[in-house]
Amino acid sequence: MNDSIYIAVENESGKVRQLEIPNGINLSLMEVLKAAEYDILATCGGMALCATCRIEVIEGIDRLEPQTDAELDMLDMLPDAGSHSRLACQIRLDASLDGLKIRVFGNN
C-alpha cells in the first residue's frame, strides 16, 4: 500500500499542481483543497447544500463512489454542471483515488 495519494489539480488558468495527500487521512477532497489554499468556498461546510465546492473530474471518474441523491440534486441546479461534475465535499479520500485528475473553479 502506498503511503500517499497523488491528485493532479488543474486551476481555471490551466496550471496543474500535484497534491500529495497522506493515505488514511480520513478527509474529504474539499477539506484537502481548502487546506492547499485553493479558492473553494464550501459555504455549507461539506453538507452538499451549496455546490460551492464543485469540481470537474478529468481522469478517474470511474474510481469515485456513486453520487448521492443530495449531490445529484445540487448539481442539477447548476447550469454548467456536466456528467463529470462532482461536489468535492462528497468525495472521501482513499488509495483508490491515487492518480485522480480534477479541475477546480475559483469562487464556485
Proportion of strand residues: 25-35%
How is the CATH topology named?
A: Ubiquitin-like (UB roll)
Order of helices and strands: EEHEHEE
Name of the CATH first level: Alpha Beta
Total domains, how many?
1
What's the story with the biggest beta sheet?
5 strands, mixed
The beta-strand count equals: 5
Main structural class: alpha+beta
Strand line-up across the major sheet: 2-1-5-3-4
Named CATH architecture: Roll
Radius of gyration: 13 Å
Terminal CA distance = 34 Å
Q: What helical percentage do the residues reach?
A: 10-25%
Can I get a quick summary?
With about 110 residues, the chain is α+β, with helices and mostly antiparallel strands.
Kindly describe this structure.
This protein is 14% helix and 25% strand. With 108 residues, it is an alpha+beta fold. It has a five-stranded mixed sheet, with no helix packed on it. The N and C termini lie far apart (34 Å). InterPro entries: 2Fe-2S_ferredoxin-like_sf, 2Fe-2S_ferredoxin-type, Adrenodoxin-like, Beta-grasp_dom_sf.
Distinctive features:
108 residues, metal-binding, five-stranded mixed β-sheet, globular, Beta-grasp_dom_sf, alpha+beta, 2Fe-2S, iron-sulfur, 2 helices, 5 strands, 2Fe-2S_ferredoxin-type
Set out the fold topology.
Blueprint: E1 4-10, E2 16-22, H1 29-35, E3 54-59, H2 69-76, E4 85-87, E5 101-104
Parallel strand pairs: 1-5
Antiparallel strand pairs: 1-2, 3-4, 3-5
Cofactor: [2Fe-2S] cluster
Domain 2Fe-2S ferredoxin-type: 3-108
Keywords: 2Fe-2S, Iron, Iron-sulfur, Metal-binding
